[in-house]
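Final report, section 2: Outcomes. Of the targets proposed, Elongation factor Ts is the one most frequently requested by collaborating groups, and we therefore present its record in full.
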Amino acid sequence: MAEITAQMVKELRESTGAGMMDCKNALKEVDGDFEKAVKYLREKGLGQAAKKADRLAAEGLVDVVISPDFKSATVSEINSETDFVAKNEQFIALTKDTTKHIQENSLSTVEELHKSVINGTPFEEYLKTQIATIGENLVVRRFASLKAENNGVVNGYIHTNGRVGVVIAASCDSEEATTKVRDFLKQLCMHIAAMKPSYLSYEDLDLDFVEAEYKALVAELEKENEERRRLKDPNKPEHKIPKYASRKQLNEDILKAKEEEIKAELKAQNKPEKIWANIIPGKLNSFIADNSQLDSKLTLMGQFYVLDDKKTVEQVIKQKEQELGTKIQILDFVRFEVGEGLEKKNEDFAAEVAAQMS
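The predicted structure is given below as tokens.
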């Protein structure tokens, strides 16, 4: 039998795109004959993975794995080319096995994943075998894990269509309290899945970004007001143009000045001073709500809760703290949706032919 050298395996791999072990086994099967090895791989469907890797994978599944002790949560997005393959049992098993593997081995990057070993096989080779078997390009696009320390807890949610997944981490007053908080965290994950917040709170927003978004918000509201003035619909009054877009802009001086303004109004209305304390907080909260519209769009804490749209998530958390008798601090969350940020390639056959002829 001919000696199978590393150089022979390398050349076959570069030519076919098949996995290293598949190339080595193919050369052994045909006694080192390069052309026969290429034919062997193609007949096995293993020589097509490289060609398939050129095709955009924008469908697929999101998967979520929560450790039994609710101390570690992992979410992953693995892409396929078509929605049809995303429903394939082998692909579903691949997503679950990969997400579990990521969590159990504390992997943090896709590069680390490809260098790892799963079920005794290098992950890169394992994935290429799956590509060859399933018949489409498959890509582990991204993943993230959240871990809980002492008095911490995680949970997650995956939507029934498998296209949206969320994980969240929180801390409590005690380890005992974490058990009480689990179900509530899952409800928050469901809210995040539906409402798509990008940030945890206004404190995470960059001030320059907020100020730029404020200009865009005012322009949008003014344009809508022009249309409402034109239509003259009594049921659609003009929007009140806010002075600010986020609590990030509402410093202590601004809030103090507003409070003094409210007091002056109450005095002018001859309201008894003894009832001011009951009125001022509500008016101040109304001012904050009117001037933090960006928070309600982009931040979890500033959004109105899907299960009680009269309260923000921040208010619901405070209510839940009283109900469960523990402090609940949301530390972080991650939301993945299949294909977000990816553009599907539109094949223009006519343009392709014209390009080849030019």
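The beta strands are 59-66, 72-80, 117-118, 121-122, 139-147, 152-158, 164-171, 304-305, 308-312, 329-337.
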